[in-house]
Design a protein that fits this description.
By secondary structure, the chain is of the alpha+beta class. It contains 11 helices and 9 strands. The chain has a 7-stranded mixed sheet with strand order 1-4-5-9-8-7-6, with helices on both faces. A two-stranded antiparallel ribbon has the order 2-3. The radius of gyration is 39 Å and the shape is elongated. Bound molecules: 3,4-dihydroxyphenylalanine (DAH). 3,4-dihydroxyphenylalanine binds next to strand 8 and strand 9.
């Protein structure tokens, strides 16, 4: 028996030596360990071996099995390594080739304006909050004094997810969230820039646009603080010569409310097609926070007052960079975007 197994092992090693592929290796496994394999058959023959020789026989078959297993593992490793080496060789990168030039992008004008507004207000001690684009009716409307069925809701139709959730129509929604989150009912000074949505479908409106909301609440905040803040805002963003004009208006969440115009940056106020010959361009809505809104936000209107303002970021970007059509901001045309790779001072704006 011993001799027989020696011979078989010799044959086995020869077989292993000839193996080149995984397929051949697997064929060998069938030859030795398959249903009719050499080792399997030797194993089943054990029942015919006299009891006294069984132990020796078993050990000898095991010797062959171990030799097979060891050889099998070695050859398998060798083939796998060869495959990896071959792949590495094939995928070698020739780093001596000149690279194709990477095109550099530039910051979207919308985000340039957001960053500028953020820098300005952060320098005046404001925090920047995100708010949420998917809002509920409560924060987008009810806590801002738009009761159910309030006529001012008509101007702000949007995309409803269900009867309670909608894509926010105004970043003003952040007001109610910030007031609620301020559990100590301390002073608030925040801006909230971001995307807003309305069901608009005419050529001068987009269903998605940007706004920035500002909210200040403290003791003794007056309309004079609002005026001063917005004057700084207009001058810093649109130029020191910009004049600001306040007109009475209506918003449910402010009282009194106003609309703020800036002197036309094209004609300086003389009147031209851009300002429709009025000399003024409408910039934003603002006002003193309505006592109901303060109360619903947990602030005592006898102790606290506040102001709020909200402006369209697209409009600001269009004014700043003389962009003639709002749709340029959303069509992702590289030829348009490529123009915004310079510093602000390097633009010569022509309206
Ligand atoms: N949320 C208003 C809008 O989308 C803009 C606005 C007006 C915001 C007056 C304000 C405000 O904070 O005081 O039309």
């Amino acid at each position: 028996m011993h001799q027989k197994i020696d011979l078989l092992i010799e044959k086995l090693l020869k077989d292993f030596n000839e193996v080149k592929t995984m397929q051949e290796l697997n064929d060998l496994k069938v030859k030795y360990q398959g249903k009719k394999g050499v080792i399997t058959e030797l194993n089943s023959a054990i029942k015919d071996i006299p009891a006294t020789e069984k132990k020796d026989y078993g050990m000898e078959v095991n010797r062959l099995r171990s030799a097979f297993n060891e050889g099998f593992e070695n050859i398998k490793l060798r083939i796998e390594q060869e495959l990896i080496n071959k792949k590495l060789e094939e995928e070698k990168i020739d780093i001596s080739l000149p690279s194709s030039k990477r095109k550099k992008g530039s910051k979207h004008p919308f985000y340039r304006v957001i960053e500028e507004v953020e820098d300005l207000f952060v320098s005046m001690g404001y925090d920047v909050v995100d708010g949420q684009e998917l809002e509920d009716d409560e924060h987008c409307f009810r806590l801002l004094n738009y009761t159910k069925g309030h006529p001012a809701r008509d101007a702000q139709d949007t995309f409803y997810i269900d009867s309670e959730y909608l894509l926010r129509t105004q970043t003003s929604a952040a007001q109610s969230r910030v007031m609620q989150a301020n559990t100590k009912k301390g002073p608030i000074r925040v801006i909230c820039p971001g995307k807003t949505y309305r069901r608009d479908d005419d050529a001068t409106h987009s269903h998605q646009f940007g706004q920035v909301e500002g909210l200040v609440i403290d003791k003794n905040i007056s309309l004079a603080d609002l005026k001063g803040t917005l004057e700084i805002f207009a001058k810093k963003l649109l130029g020191e010569d910009t004049k600001v004009r306040f007109r009475p208006s209506y918003f449910p969440f402010t009282s009194p409310s106003c609309e703020v115009d800036v002197s036309c940056f094209k004609c300086g106020g003389k009147g031209c097609p851009l300002c429709k010959k009025t000399g003024w361009i409408e910039l934003l809505g603002a006002g003193m926070v309505h006592p109901n809104v303060l109360r619903m936000g947990g602030y005592d209107p006898d102790l606290f007052t506040g102001f709020a303002f909200g402006t369209g970021l697209d409009r600001l970007a269009m004014f700043k960079y003389a962009i003639p059509d709002i749709r340029y901001l959303y069509t992702n045309d590289v030829r348009f975007l490529k123009q915004f790779d310079r510093k602000d001072e390097e633009y010569e704006i022509k309206y």
